[in-house]
Amino acid sequence: MAVADIAEVRRTKALQERAENRTLTRLTIGPSPWARAGALAALAVLAGIWLVPLVWGAVTSFKHEAEAALPASLLPTMGWTLDAYQKVLGSSDLLLWMWNSLVVAVLVTVITVLISAMAAFAFSQTLFRGRAVMQWLTLAAIMMPGQILIVPLFREMQVLGLVDTFAGIVLPQVVAPVMVFILKRFFDAIPRELLDAARIDGAGSWRLFWTIVLPLSRSILVAVAIFVFIGAWNNFLWPFIVTTDPQFMTLPVGLSTVKDAYGVQYAQNMASAMIAALPLLILFMLFQRRIVQGVATTGMGGQ
Amino acid sequence: MTVSNPGVSAPLERALPGRPASASRPGTRAEPARKSMRERDRSGYLFVAPFAVATGLFLVVPTLYGLWMSFTNQSLTGTGSEFIGFANYVEAFSDPQVWQTLWHTVWFTILSTIPLVFVALVMALLVHTGLPGQWVWRMSFFAPYLLTSAVVWHLSNWMFQPDIGLLDTWMTGLGLQPLGWLTDENVAMFSIAGVTVWWTVGFNFLLYLAALQGIPAQQYEAATIDGAGGWRRLFSITLPQLRTITGVIVVLQLLASLKVFDQIYMLTAGGPNGSTRPILEYIYDTGFTNYRLGYASAISYVFFALILVFTLVRLLPARKEA
To answer: Which of A81, B5, B90, B281 minimizes the number of CB atoms within 10 Å of its CB?
Structure first.
């Protein structure tokens, strides 16, 4: 019965959405069938162009190596095969790099969201000496692009002994002043009466933070987390600089070292690329709505 | 900003029905009581401490350390760290490589930003028509953004392969000469910009889409009743309301494009003949290949000055609003 209810809700939602889309079509391009056909054709062409590299890479990854290097024909003529995947998974560190990336991205996300939310709470809901100065410094920190710090930061990591460690990869990535301001703006909108009532009931700041502020901010926290996770999973420059040992390489760094050392092996290259692309693509298919909303919300950054 | 940001306040309003988000802004009657409650709360120190420590260690320290380094002749091997005054900066301003890589960076920024904003706008306008296939369109346009640069490199490098690559196959199929996509000095930067547009346009597309969803339907209704056609509605209602968000997207895109490194480093390594090397790669080469940390830091700060100009442009409207 519960299952039937959920299916019912889904169906209603889908119908509602379709109705909304129809209204939107009427409002934007109007009733002309020609205009609609034109817009659809434009969409199809654009989507086609955007999908070609991915589809092409995917098909090639299932080809025999001998055929992959021939002038392009879309479908394999020598039959489909999993050869490339077997070779790549058997002989490279791909799975290790993926695991490293997962560890790094999860650590970066958890730490960033936690310390940014705590700082945002402090700026939004507490008063302490130096708060204004700290806020100004945080605002100034937004202006500092991490890329120009690679040289001194690497030197600092050498001094701290953090080169080729997870700490060395993760810690410099957790400083996200933009996220502090995004969260602060959200926390500012939480009704003071609610917090004051809890304070009168004797709740300390720590409890206020965990039991009222964080639960009320779930949607923005998820948005920030998604954004930070995608960034950390895909980050190339810093992990590339701070790791030399293949044991600690993340997926982007490891994958960039896969050159065609043993002659050209396109099928295997494409298989590696597909395996590397899969986790986030699956994540996106599962949580499309949340990711779209999250990127749109946080993407505008400190604006 | 005229375009409100529905994602931020809507969930909260849903969580607390009947209570507008701005009810407790300063100036309401609850003000004195609230202030005293907050004043008693001194725990802010503890909450801000982890972020402050991390920022200090990994942002403030390297910023100051780098600044100091730029006045020394420090090298990666550890030898020499004497103070040499402005020598590094003097060298940087007369180093043709600095100017050349700076120009490549700006050239790439121009080549990539224009289509990255325009194509994103066209995509968003088309998807916002609500035509069937919403899921497919969003997926196709945004999916490449989720790929890491190394995957983008594998895919595009293979399409760019001479003779057997997809692009050359198409060129010869159309009866044209194959192009040196990554090997011709006159073509390589365009190829890289093209890859970048394919890779990252989905992000701007989503920002535009969110802004479009914020335009009230009544305005379209009213215009339709007044007899405005589809094009008229596009130019008189939709586009004018996208002015602010376009400004935001352009500046964000400029800042992102100026920091280009990954795709160029992998696709051409700055070649052919140094014709695509961006300044970030020059900094990397100077510091980590030639071991000249002091000089690399000085170039970093020259580059920072350029970025700062754009950042200030970005922050100014935000301050006016506040």
So the answer is: B90
Closest CA–CA distance from residue B185 to any residue of chain A (Å)? 22
Element (H, E) at B318: helix B293-321
Q: Which residue has the tokens 């000469």?
A: B177
Sequence-ordered alpha helix ranges (H) in B128-165? 134-142, 149-159
Q: How far is CA A96 from CA A167, A257, B70, in A?
A: 17, 14, 38
d(CA B34, CA B24): 10
Q: Is residue A298 part of a domain?
A: no
Which residue from B47, B130, B315 is facing A122, i.e. has the nearest CB? B47
Kindly state the tokens that stand for A186: 């959200």
- Looking at the complex, report in whole angstroms how far the Cα of residue A70 sits from the nearest Cα belonging to chain B: 6
CB–CB of A188/A213 below 8 Å? no
Q: Profile chain B (322 residues) by mean pLDDT over runs of 10 residues.
A: 38 38 42 50 83 93 91 78 83 90 92 94 91 88 90 86 77 77 84 92 91 84 80 85 88 88 87 87 90 90 88 63 42
Cα gap A150→A169, rounded to integer Å: 12
Q: Are A81 and A147 in contact (CB under 8 A)?
A: no
Same domain, A236 and A122: yes
Superfamily of domain B89-321: MetI-like (1.10.3720.10)
pTM of the model: 0.85
Distance CA A15, CA A256 (A): 46
CA nearest B17: which of A216, A198, A186? A216
CB-CB under 8 Å, B209 with A292? yes
Angle at B271 between CA B266 and CA B277, to 5 degrees: 80
